[in-house]
């Protein structure tokens, strides 16, 4: 079971809200988020309601201000708990939309997509097993995108504004 506490002010001050499950709209509980504590579990935070906008992966720890989780502002409007997963991991990446073009299958983390795939753009993917996070830049940096098992026919299906993926890693593997 996971638990995360959101605070409206920096350094854990002001109105707070405890959350232990997915929440598609935090606006009725907090007006902004300037600090938070992840007591247990792993979480994705989203800038907008319904799991839209910039995404931020957080693990257990204390975050006294939004810069600590690489936030662009104090707007956190939804959150999703990432379930623990101890099975196999498998993802297929495609250079073109609708699973077209060159395909490569992975079952482990990849710190640099270009080095292994010789492409910077991933237009579609099929998450067959496990949960994954894509990063726009190599070495797990830049904007983040959480992918659960399923088919993503276009990069917009995982919330990206461009097909550029620099790295990715398995999630829920502890």
TrEMBL record:
Coiled coil (UniProt feature): none
Name the record gives this protein: Beta/gamma crystallin 'Greek key' domain-containing protein
Pfam family, one: Crystall
Keyword RNA-binding on entry: no
Record text on subunit structure and interactions: Monomer.
Domain Beta/gamma crystallin 'Greek key': 2-40, 41-83, 89-129, 130-172
Assigned keywords, A-Z: Eye lens protein, Repeat
PROSITE patterns given in the database record: CRYSTALLIN_BETA_GAMMA (PS50915)
Family: Belongs to the beta/gamma-crystallin family.
Function: Crystallins are the dominant structural components of the vertebrate eye lens.
InterPro entries to which the protein is assigned, alphabetical: Beta/Gamma-Crystallin, Beta/gamma_crystallin, G_crystallin-like
Organism: Pleurodeles waltl
Top-rank lineage group of the source organism: Eukaryota
Signal peptide start and end residues: none
């Amino acid at each position: 079971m996971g638990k995360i506490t959101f605070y409206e002010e920096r350094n854990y001050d002001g109105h707070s809200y405890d959350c232990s499950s997915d929440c598609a709209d935090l606006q009725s509980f907090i007006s902004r988020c300037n600090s938070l504590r992840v007591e247990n579990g792993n979480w994705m935070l989203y800038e907008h309601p319904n799991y839209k906008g910039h995404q931020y992966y957080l693990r257990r720890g204390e975050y006294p201000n939004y810069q600590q989780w690489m936030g662009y502002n104090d707007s956190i409007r939804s959150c999703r708990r990432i379930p623990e997963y101890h099975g196999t991991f498998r993802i297929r990446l495609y250079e073109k939309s609708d699973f077209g073009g060159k395909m490569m299958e992975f079952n482990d983390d990849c710190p640099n997509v270009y080095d292994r795939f010789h492409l910077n753009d991933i237009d579609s993917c099929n998450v067959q097993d496990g949960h994954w996070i894509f990063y726009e830049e190599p070495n797990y940096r830049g904007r983040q995108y959480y992918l659960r098992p399923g088919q993503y026919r276009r990069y917009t299906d995982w919330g990206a504004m461009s097909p550029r993926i620099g790295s990715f890693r398995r999630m829920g593997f502890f």
